[in-house]
């Protein structure tokens, strides 16, 4: 069996993951929550110059916590981090999280990352009551295997260069039991589109016309990739991404997959990882499929990382395509 997109062509083709959105149309923002059915091994790779994060150091391979219970992607810049507080409290009440001793309070591990959407149209005059706590709870409660793409959740207020940004996702079943998926909230300074305004930089990786099927009709001219973008402001753009697989990765291997998956951003957005961006990739692994049985373990990890980069490039293009 040759690799093909999974049945939903979404991150949730990786068993054990659900995704929920909450969108505030009045404010022009939102939250996206990924919930894990059990603790997933996790890592993160940060490449942008202006990240806004929570609990990312917990994921370092040398640190103790073995897995995560959810991940929060949110608009609102630093104010959006309140969504992760709400998700953490909600999960604890539901009995999800680490217990340091029997009968003690559950401690969910919920890393989060924010994108800056405070300058888009919408009422940001929220005083001391930003909407993100409530949005975090709504997004968690909405988590399901099927979820919307485009200008929803964390992608509601996103912008991709001069085009509308949004939430995108894609998956690939390798045919040997391993499934890889990606999700992106695209809010980039760089463009996902070639100079013709129709063809995505990620076009070589497209499956089944999932983002329009456009192909470049001629050699692209040289261009200044930052010309006329008008968005060169610290913290004003970020692409947040999650890649996941059902393999039994260690934290160090999950980190390598996150590093490799960053190439998917470079294939889909030009320019990327600027001083203004907060770009990062979370990497999750469910542990269901053992590695190293047919091929050397390192080869399996390399295959997963390669496919994760391809899925992420497709997810980024799908997010912008669906938002348009």
Automatic annotation (TrEMBL):
| Family assignment from sequence similarity | Belongs to the peptidase S58 family.
Cross-referenced Gene3D superfamilies:
L-amino peptidase D-ALA esterase/amidase (3.60.70.12)
One term of GO molecular function: aminopeptidase activity
Source organism of the structure = Sphingomonas aracearum
One protein family per Pfam: Peptidase_S58
Protein known as: Peptidase S58 family protein
| CDD domains (UniProt xref) | nylC_like
């Amino acid at each position: 069996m040759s690799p093909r997109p999974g049945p939903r062509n979404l991150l949730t083709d990786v068993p054990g993951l659900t995704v929920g959105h909450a969108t505030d149309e009045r404010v022009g923002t939102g939250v996206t929550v990924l919930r894990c059915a059990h603790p997933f091994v996790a890592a993160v790779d940060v490449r942008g110059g202006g990240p806004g994060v929570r609990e990312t150091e917990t994921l370092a391979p040398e640190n103790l916590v073995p897995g995560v219970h959810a991940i929060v992607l949110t608009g609102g810049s630093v104010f959006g981090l309140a969504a992760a507080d709400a998700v953490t409290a909600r999960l604890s009440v539901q009995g999800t999280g680490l217990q340091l001793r029997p009968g003690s309070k559950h401690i969910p591990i919920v890393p989060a990352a924010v994108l800056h959407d405070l300058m888009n149209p919408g009422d940001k005059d929220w005083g001391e009551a930003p909407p993100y706590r409530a949005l975090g709870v709504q997004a968690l409660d909405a988590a399901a295997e099927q979820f919307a793409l485009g200008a929803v959740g964390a992608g509601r207020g996103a912008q991709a260069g001069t085009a509308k940004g949004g939430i995108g996702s894609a998956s690939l079943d390798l045919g040997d039991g391993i499934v890889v998926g990606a999700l992106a909230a695209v809010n980039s300074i760089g463009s996902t589109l070639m100079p013709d305004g129709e063809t995505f930089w990620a076009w070589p990786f497209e499956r089944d016309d999932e983002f329009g099927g456009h192909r470049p009709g001629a050699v692209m001219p040289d261009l200044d990739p930052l010309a006329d973008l008008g968005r060169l402001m610290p913290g004003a753009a970020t692409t947040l991404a999650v890649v996941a697989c059902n393999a039994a990765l260690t934290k160090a291997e999950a980190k390598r997959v996150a590093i490799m998956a960053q190439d998917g951003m470079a294939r889909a957005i030009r320019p990327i990882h600027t001083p203004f961006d907060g770009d990062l990739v979370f990497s999750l692994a469910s542990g269901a499929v053992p590695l190293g049985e047919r091929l050397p373990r390192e080869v399996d990890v390399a295959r997963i990382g390669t496919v994760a980069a391809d899925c992420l490039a497709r997810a980024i293009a799908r997010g912008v395509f669906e938002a348009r």
